[in-house]
Each structure stands twice: as C-alpha cells, then as structure tokens.
Amino acid sequence: MALSKKQKKKRRRIIILSAVGVVVLALGYLLYSYGIDYYRKYYACGGVEIDYYRFPVTGIDVASHQGKIDWKEVYDSKVYFAFIKATEGENFVDKRFKENWKEAKQNNIIVGAYHFFRFNKDGKEQAYNFINNVSLSADDLPPVLDVELYGGNKYTQETKNKVISEIFNCLRTLERHYERRPIVYTNIETYQNFIKGNFDDYDLWICKLCSEPKSLDWTFWQYNHSGDVPGIRSEVDLNIFNGNYSDFINYLYDNKNEETEDIDS
Question: HSE (CB half, 13 Å, CA atoms) of 210?
Fold first, then answer.
C-alpha cells in the first residue's frame, strides 16, 4: 500500500530526527572521551609527595570562592606566601580581593596578586583593569598573569596568534607600569600551546598535579588543587617556591630592582 503524503512527511521527520540524534550522541561520546583522557592525563593521580627539605617555602592561591579566610590561622599553619585573585578580563574584580590582600599582609604573609586572562578580550584593557585595582609595594611579589585553557577560554588556529599578541600586550603593559617583570601562571597544556617559545623570559608558575615539572625552568609550582589549610573552609590550591628561604627573599627583593630589557620598546 502506497504511503500518503502525510505518512511520507512523518517518516522523513523521523529519519531526520534519528540522524540528528546519532550525530548528537557521537559528539557527546567524543567530548566525554576527550574529557576522560584530559582528566587522566592531568588530574587522575594520587597526588605528589613534596620534599620539603628541597622546597621549604610553601604557599597557596585563593579567590572569592574560598569564602571568608582566617589569615592568622593560615599564617600559623606555616603558609609563607599567597597569590590572591584580583581581576579578570576587562572589568571584573574579585569581590574578596581587597579583604584578602589586607588581612594576609596584616598577618605577615607575603602576597602576590593575579589576573585571569580572557582570550577574547583586549590585552591592554585587561592590564589596566589590574592596574586600577592593585597597588604593589616593594614587599609584594610581582604581578601575575593567569593564562590557561579553562573557564571558557578557547581558540582556533586562526585566532591563536591574536591571543598570543594580546597576552604580550597585557604583559608589557603590566611590566611598564610596575617596572617589574610579571610572573606567568599556566598549566602544561596551555604552556605547550601559548607560552613556550613566546614568553620564556617571564618567570613561570606552573600547574602540574601528577609529577614534578623537572623538564621546565619554573619559579613556582602548583601541585595540588585540593589542599586542606587551617583557616580556609574549602579546598585550596597548594604551591611551592623553587628554592630555600634565602632564595625566596632574594627573589622577592632582587626582582624589583632588575632592569627589564627594552621596557619602553
């Protein structure tokens, strides 16, 4: 029996919906597989055992999602330094930055401020957002630019060079203003795609959770995303400095006196 026009139309709709469903399932599977592979590559490990005789200078990094922090308890737990989120993109300011900055310093913790870089925003404008909200003294760590494929940051081969150019503009604007070379924070994947070969002159703060980054020339190493620190109710990132206490003090005060090459170029 021949199908009616209505039946044929219904059949075509079913075929189309089925095809769309298959495509969606296939894409979902690919994304899931990528996510699992990424997790296994960077996060699925039992943690890193730190040799505190080699790396005695311990620190944390925090943002507003850590909530209210008791910085005296943090200091009493032998946390030596803290990187505190200040800004993001062209206009976002972390709501707890001023509070964390003030109270950490009041409790004798060496502090540094960081800016989360947005791939689709102007680099200079992002630098000005940080500059307008962060005053650094001689006792503070250099400004930090957080560059990572995370939080919505993405790129294509066509936009990659543009992103690198804006990272450069942001770093140079910060460098000119503070007269100190910024630190670049990144993870392994982003380092390979954007930092390596482009920003090797900047001190590196690297995130690597499953093993020591022995092949990299790093200054700070973020080795744990789920640390338990007295005074902080939520999990917190743990970091170490590449050196002993004397090295850290020398780094802190020598860095501000270094003449950056071609700073006005």
Answer: 10
